[in-house]
Design goal:
Four Helix Bundle (Hemerythrin (Met), subunit A); mainly alpha; 72% helix; 6 helices; single chain; 208 residues; elongated
Length: 208
């Protein structure tokens, strides 16, 4: 007697779903857990290095242009821009639920422009650190932390650019509405994670 094969009828299931019902949403959430752990390790390294110096930040070596306290100007302006960018991203997020193509197009373009500005400001921030990455361990951990966040700004902006091109050229379907909303979560994380990192990198040398 042949074994009976049981099948499940999935013809009524939606081809694309939003948020926690979607595997890509969970994939993005787990990715952000990994990236948050990476930054936690960098922060732990910062405080470990701090334990190895009697003076913090390490004093200026003789005959060096090294200055231990990073300048705040460009970093603070960039922080404000990054936090303000959450507003158009929330608008995009909600517009995707309504399938409001015009609003998504407009605000995705704004997000791409904001992303380019934040990346440009980040390079000014490197110069405002006032030390080279190889001056000492303190300099290295700050350059690494700021640089890793720059990598996420570049990645997030690149994703926004791809989605922006799609909605301008192809319109907005269910699949890409979901993809854009996943990208929104990623950008929220980019903005949120920079708040403690900014305080540690720029005020840690002054307060600790």
């Amino acid at each position: 007697m042949s074994a009976q094969v049981r099948t499940i009828d999935v013809s009524d299931l939606e081809p694309h779903v939003m948020d926690r019902r979607s595997p890509i949403w969970w994939g993005n959430a787990l990715l952000l857990c990994i990236e948050t752990t990476m930054f936690a390790l960098l922060v732990a390294s910062y405080f470990y290095i701090h334990m190895n110096y009697a003076d913090w930040p390490p004093p200026r070596p003789i005959n060096s242009n090294y200055r231990p306290d990073p300048k705040l100007g460009f970093a603070t302006i960039n922080l404000i821009i990054i936090l303000a960018s959450v507003v158009p991203m929330v608008i995009v997020d909600k517009a995707c639920l309504r399938r409001d193509l015009a609003t998504v197009r407009r605000n995705m373009l704004i997000m791409v422009l904001i992303g380019v500005v934040t990346i440009a400001f980040r390079f000014f921030e490197f110069n405002a650190l006032q030390f080279r990455w190889d001056d000492n361990a303190y300099a290295s951990i700050l350059w690494t932390t700021v640089g890793m966040h720059l990598a996420h700004l570049v990645t997030g902006t690149a994703e926004n650019l791809l989605m922006c091109l799609w909605v301008w050229l192809k319109g907005l379907d269910d699949k890409h509405a979901r993809d854009i909303r996943v990208g929104c979560v990623y950008w929220y994380w980019i903005a949120a994670i920079w708040i403690p990192l900014y305080l540690i990198c720029y005020f840690g040398p002054r307060w600790i």
